[in-house]
Amino acid sequence: MSFENRITQLFNIELPIIQAGMVWASGWELASAVSNAGGLGILGAGSMYPAILREQIQKTKAATNKPFAVNLPMLYPDLQAHINIIIEEKVPIVFTSAGNPKTWTSTLKEAGIIVVHVVSSALFAQKAEAAGCDAVVAEGFEAGGHNGRDETTTMVLIPLVHKAVKIPVIAAGGIGTGAQMLAAFALGAEGVQIGTRFVCSEESCAHIHFKQAVVNAGEGATQLGLKQLAPVRLLKNEFAIEILALEREGKDKEALASFLGRGRAKKGMYEGDMKEGELEIGQVSAMVDNILPAAVIVKDIWKEFQITAEHINTLPFTRSF
To answer: End-to-end distance of the chain based on CA atoms, in angstroms?
Structure first.
């Protein structure tokens, strides 16, 4: 079970399947399980204090001898401490997001680290390429967590980014199956980054109540909001309904931040408060109906990717060329 293209070569992995570094869900157990299965596991540093990040990196290294990455949201207040730990622990790959790629890319690359930046537009992809990033994740409007303000869908974003840059493009947002992965490849992607499907893995450190809420989510269960703060896609619960109503009423940034408070995401996704917690998840949650080991998820996605590609080749229009 292997595949070779620029993404697998860049990361030295077997399959171009990347597990997103999600806050409160992506710890060492999930990251190492995905890497051991042939994909690229990522630690979600956005929910980790520096000492916790170091511990998680060390546990990941003990659990796998394969490449893994750390996702580093640039909104984090003590980035320098995280950067120092990543370099000291010789993390091979870093995915940066929610900030200017010029800020840390050169520092990381000087330490021999592969750098990938998450973007929501072709313009930002060009800026990431100019900053020296080795690849970009083009994340569409469908994605969970923090999102682009322009609400560009993955199907539109991927070809735009593919046309705009020469470095490899990884597709994200609304992808949870092998058929969706193949569609992303048809649009110019060379890898996929998947979050929501891996939230509902056995190794995810998300609370079981949150996992079950994702499994039970149907079509239309999520909504993108909070553009005045940082756009985020939320599973609709009592908290989400209330804060999104405040946003519609025109409440200012300060009022929304006050209602949001501190630790709301941890309360929901990690501690399991399904009423008052912030539940960040993607639209593809409507297609997730079980909780499986991460290795099985990787295997199922890759198998469906291959089966769908074979099916495409049997369609009548393919025989006319």
So the answer is: 29
Quote the CA–CA distance of 88 and 83 in Å, as a whole number. Answer: 9
Instruction: Report the CATH number at residue 189.
Output: 3.20.20.70
Q: Locate tokens 């509902």: which residue? A: 200
Of the candidates 195, 235, 201, the one whose C-alpha atom is nearest the C-alpha of residue 218 is: 235
**What's the token pair of residue 210?**
């949150």
Residues 43 and 190 in one domain: yes
Cα four-point dihedral sign 262, 79, 133, 6: negative
Are 184 and 277 found together in one domain?
Answer: no
Residues of the chain with pLDDT under 70: 317-321
Q: Are the C-beta atoms of 261 and 270 separated by less than 8 Å?
A: no
Q: What is the pTM of this model?
A: 0.95
pLDDT in tens, 228-282: 888 889 999 999 999 999 999 999 899 998 998 888 999 999 999 999 999 999 9
- Give the other-Cβ count within 10 Å of 271's Cβ: 14
Residue 225 sits in which domain range? 218-283
C-alpha span between 17 and 190 (Å, rounded)? 10
Local structure of 203: helix, strand or coil: coil
31 plus 152 within the same structural domain? yes
Q: Which residues of 138-160 are buried (b: 16+ CB within 10 A; e: fewer)?
A: bbbbbbbbbbbeeebebbebbbb
